[in-house]
Design goal:
The structure holds two protein chains of two kinds.
Chain A: H1 10-45, H2 47-58, E1 59-64, E2 71-72, E3 78-90, H3 92-95, H4 98-106, H5 113-124, E4 133-136, H6 141-149, E5 157-166, H7 174-177, E6 180-182, H8 185-190, E7 201-203, H9 206-210, H10 212-216, E8 220-226, E9 232-239, E10 247-249, H11 253-263, E11 268-274, E12 279-286, H12 292-296, H13 300-308, H14 317-320, H15 330-339, E13 348-351, E14 354-355, E15 364-365, E16 378-381, H16 382-387, H17 391-399, H18 403-411, H19 434-441, H20 447-454, H21 464-475, E17 486-489, H22 510-525, H23 538-542, E18 550-556, E19 579-586, E20 593-599, H24 605-627
Parallel strand pairs in A: 2-10
Antiparallel strand pairs in A: 1-8, 2-3, 3-4, 3-5, 6-7, 8-9, 10-17, 11-12, 11-20, 13-16, 14-15, 18-19, 19-20
Chain B: H1 3-9, H2 12-23, H3 28-48, H4 53-75, H5 78-102, E1 104-106, E2 109-112, H6 123-140, H7 148-166, H8 171-187, H9 192-212, H10 215-225, H11 236-248, H12 259-262, H13 274-307, H14 311-335, H15 354-371
Antiparallel strand pairs in B: 1-2
Helix pairs in contact in B: 1-2, 3-4, 3-13, 4-15, 5-6, 5-7, 6-7, 6-8, 6-14, 6-15, 7-8, 8-14, 11-13, 13-14, 14-15
Classes of the chains: A alpha+beta, B mainly alpha.
Chain lengths: 628, 375
Amino acid sequence: MAETGHLKDPEAERRRFTARAITLFLLALLGIFVLVGRMIQLQVVDYQKYSTRSDDNRIQMQPLAPPRGLIFDRHGELLADNRPVFTLELVSEQVGDLERVVEDLSSLVAITERDMEAFRKRIERPRRPFEPVPLKYVLTEEEIASLALNRFRLPGVVVEAQLVRHYPYGESVAHAVGSVRRVSEEDLERLDPVNYSATQFVGKLAVERFYERSLHGEVGYQQVEIDARGRVREVLAVQPAVAGQNLTLELDARLQLAAQRALGERRGAVVAIEPSTGGILALVSHPGYDPNLFVTGMTSDEYRALTTAREKPLFNRALNGRYAPGSTFKPVVGLAGIALGVTTWERTIHDTGAFRLPGQRRAYRDWSWKKGNSGGQGIVNLHRAIYRSSNTYFFDLASRMNINDFTGFVAQFGYGSNTALDLADASAGLLPTPTWKRGAKGEPWYPGDNVNMGIGQGDLLVTPLQLATAASIIANRGVFKRPRMLLSSDRPLLESDPPPDPPDVTGVGPEDWERMVDAMEDVVHRGNLGYQQSGTAWAYIGQNAPYRIAGKSGTSQVVGIAQGEEYDEKLLGEYQRKHAWFIAFAPADAPRIALAVLVENGGGGSSVAAPVAREVLDAYLLPQVAAR
Amino acid sequence: MNNRDFVRSLPKGQGLYIRQLNLIHLDPLMVFVLLAIMAFGLVVLFSALEGNIEVFRGQVLRLAGAIAVLVLAAQLEPRFYLRWSPVVYALGIVLLGAVLVVGVSAKGATRWLDLPGLPRFQPSEAMKIAVPLVVAWYLNDRPLPPRLTHLLVALAIIAVPAVLIAIQPDLGTAILVAGAGLAVIVLSGVYWRWILLALAAAAAAAPALWMNMREYQKDRVLTLFDAERDPLGAGWNIIQSTTAIGSGGVFGKGLFQGTQSHLEFLPESQTDFIIAVVAEELGLVGVVFLLVLYLVLLARALYMATEARHTFGRLVVGSLALTFFVYVFVNIAMVSGLLPVVGVPLPLVSYGGTAAITLMASFGIMMSIHTHRGW
């Protein structure tokens, strides 16, 4: 290298270098101080914060879902249990090429478009690294087996097991037991967030809903040490979950199935009650739905089909269907007449087939009225008015009762209120009063309203459960036993103390009860006596009954029939036809079962609903008769 | 105190032993501190590896190899380095060019060269030494402090490899390579006012630099200011490393007891983020101990630089020492959240062979310059 102009001065260079080196060393020292300062800030000043954060990282309280209480029928048949279902989950950090793995999996597991769509949404959501993302719920046994076989070449593919509700009887008990649904955002606002932190399903209807607190149990915890991939390295402490209470219901699964069979394909409801206890033996609403679908999931098409079907399978007719009771109301009207002193058993009227209020021209006609046939039943007393179901008699009787006394008496049978012990979602029906009418319709109460109510028409609405309750009260000769689903539980339940039974029906003497029961027995058993002499239901169910049945048919109008018009089924659409009712209890002297049967748009109560009732009674009583 | 004085001051028996070290051109104090740092690093690495003996043994062998490189580098005379540095530099430029054309890509960057008959290597690594050497070579005969023209030539010498590395892209290494060259310039006595001017210019150019940065690089810078903006993504590393450091406290959770590292919350716990393991398991005490070792090493190296007999030696020893210290500072500052995350390992502690070999070679060169008293 040639010198370039200036001469080098080695000694000056050396001094200058040393100065530079010292300066830079001091700068480095400053750097060290900065680092140490930073360490002190992290390790001393903010030690608590980072120590906590480090523990939060690794120590996790994992809630443990309590197993839901089981539900049994009165004979110990399992109506709702829990069974494991298996979910296919992916750890996207471990699977590598996600698209390829999913494609690979779809040859082993049926993955629908909908599964994929939901999976894509879930995987977009923020989550911890290595947190598994569900791809498909409810794997079949074959799918689990083929996944296990192929596990070695499917890293990051996890099969997770969890216990979910299962209803072995499926559709048959859906409306009686209710069902659970996936916990929704709304539910979370209502539920205890701590106790439900691990819970995926919550009871939504009927028993599952009413006894939710007891059935749910108490959440447990395990304190675990996890690594960054969310894998549990060590369980540090466990507080086990407390399983929900097992419940035994009054329900009799065999009777439930018999009632379902008896209804067949027809839309309707059957509610059967044990009069001595109020225990609900059967509660059928047809069509039903498979409650398991709400647990294991269904496609949106399936769900839409359920919710929009014209026959409304999700609708619980037994608890929430509100219908005019029609003639099944007459025994209560008759008892009201007796109790209020408006009539006696001896008093007769001449039934000409039509009734007119004083000073009015409108004719209230008998059910048997046809053009060219007055339908009059001749001389009728209360007894005959029951077994022949004379409309004219009850038009007359009702028209002479003070409406407030009348509704006051009727209310004792549970009309207009939900008296069930543990079916909070049952409807109260509608017992119209002048006050109600003024408020709801803005109209005064007319004498004609009395008349219509006398035969269970007008604004009066009842549910099958309410009619079964009324039948049970008559069977009990006035003793009101609150209808109930629960028979017993292992331990006292969390739900509030049961309210006492409502007061018994007052104003009706023992003899009056017996005479009303006699009249209702004649509805079924009085027969072979010729035109207009047999009970209305005798021809259909009374001819071979091995035990005494007290019953009452009813037929409730769906569409109004104009004055002078004839009801002609053929002219009406299916959904405009009359509803068929039958209430009954048996054996008449010592009733063990009382029931109400509704066949929607079925037609005549005696011809359509009574045979259903008979089949249910047979199913319950014949084995007992045979056993004796 | 120069080396001979140091040896003389030792007790007799030890003095003999040390004298022998001196004969093979090794600086006893520096060797001792280097071995101490490596031993400390191996203990921490053993913990971070969670008993993976195979990997641990591999690292021990690599360090042994690095020590061999140090010994070898110390035997070569300073004259050799002076003569060959431009050649190595030129070769390095050619290889860096080759990387851009036929290099091997990994993780979106082309950094490796896979030549037949050679193990796969990063030419940029060699430039960490070649650049300061060649700048020192260039300034060796020039009057110091350098005149502007010389300064500009030196800067160009630095810029060429730095730019070639930056477009791989490997911004971290580019900055370190440039830093090593700039260290020579600073040590050469360039006027402080020029340095300050350059710093001001750099600050003014920052927005332009920002505009040209890639998304992931911007992410890293933004994360520095607010790690919580993406706690599971870009922020994850820094959140977990500060948590590891902070939760260590003054005395640490104990060796092998670190939860952040052993439960895999801390990423790169064996490589770039190993200081967090030190901080978590050995606490502030462990970190300060390690920093003191590094500081002793720096002090010794700078002292050796002032002892050098010629400009080339002074500049080379001083710049290599400063470069080494910059690695330490950048790595710890990055892991503790003071600087954006760049790929700089902690010297002699992080797992990995390449960086250790480069470093030990540079210490070998320092010792060579220090122990060969003539040319």
